[in-house]
Each structure stands twice: as C-alpha cells, then as structure tokens.
Amino acid sequence: MSDSQTAVDSGRQALNKSWGGYPWYDAKNDSLRQLTIEPEELPPDREMKEPVDFSFIQYGVWFTLVVVIAFILYFLVRTFLRSKRETVSVALPDAGHAQRIEALPMQVDEKESDLLAAARRHYAAGNLTRAIICFFGYQLMELDRRQLIYLTQGKTNRQYLRELGQRTALRQLVSQTMVIFEDAFFGHHEPPPARFEACWSRLAEFQKLVAQEGGG
User: Fold this and answer.
1) What global pTM score does this model have?
2) Can you tell me whether residue 104 is helix, strand or coil?
3) What is the pLDDT of residues 167-184, one digit of tens each?
C-alpha cells in the first residue's frame, strides 16, 4: 500500500472515530454531506422594529403652529377692533348728546360738552363749585342715555329721583350729588373738599350701577 493511500485511510478512520462526529462528513460514502442551517431567532428585544413615521409627527407640529398663530391673529384683530370702537365712541358723542346738554338744569358751554372730563379739569384746578355742577350734569345725562330717567327742561331734580323708582342704591348715590349741586348752584356755597371727595369717589360705583340697571 502506498503512502498516499495510507494517509487517506488514516484520515477516514480519524473522522469515523471522532467523539462528536462531523455533521458535514458522510462516513458511509466517504463524502461531504450538505448541511441545512436554520436561521437564528433573535430575542424579542433584538427583533427589527418598524421605522417611525416622522412625516406624521412633522405634519402634527405644523398643524399645531398654524392653529396657535391663527388664535394669536384672532385676538390681536379683536383687540384692535375693540380699541378702535372705543376710540370712536369717545371721539363721537352718541345720538342725542346735544339735546341732553340743552335739557340740563344748568348752563354748559362748548368746552364742557364732555361733562365728566370738564368735572375732572375743574376739580384739578380747585374749582369745586363748577366741578360738582359738571359732575351732576354728567350723572343726569348718563341716566337719560341709559333710559333710567327722561331728561327734559322744566323738570325738577326731585322728579328725576322719583323716576329712578326702586333702584335704591342708585337713587341714594345720585341724591348725594344732587344735594351738593344745589348748595353750590342755587346757594352759591363752595362745596367743602371732604363732601366733594365723598361724592366724587363714588364715580366708579355710579357707572357700575348705571350699566347694570340701564337699558341704553
């Protein structure tokens, strides 16, 4: 037997006697055996995850921005229109303003057509007599504008108070101003600063009551 054949026989015997065998060696036919390799299953945490659809998130962000911008624009426009209406209402007297001025029980010149502003000017200048006259005129005009009294020439102040009816808080407040007004206008008595302040300090209360009770 040749040396080459001896080497082949030795190799075959070594493969046959191997303790675990070789799955790729077919000893019977002395040939290679085809192997089938099963794919390895990955643990759940290593399985391929589906890619995240970032386009959907992007669209959501853009939609949110558009909604926020739309709300901001809406509130800006509404605020602008409201301020514009308030400016117009201040600059342009309401219908019937001139008629109310003529129906007042006191003389009012052109510079005092805005009676509340005139009362503030006279008060700041220390002219409390004219300040209380303008302030009472302002109250009468507001009551007429809100349809709480009917302002007309020839009526007395007591008649205006009776027209307020059961509006006790409003009637008491107007009566307080009326008494100081009559002392100044008819009696020519300068209002004491404390009495004037007690009346003037209730301006906001008067405006609130008129707004609540009035219909104009």
Assistant:
1) 0.56
2) coil
3) 999 999 999 999 999 999
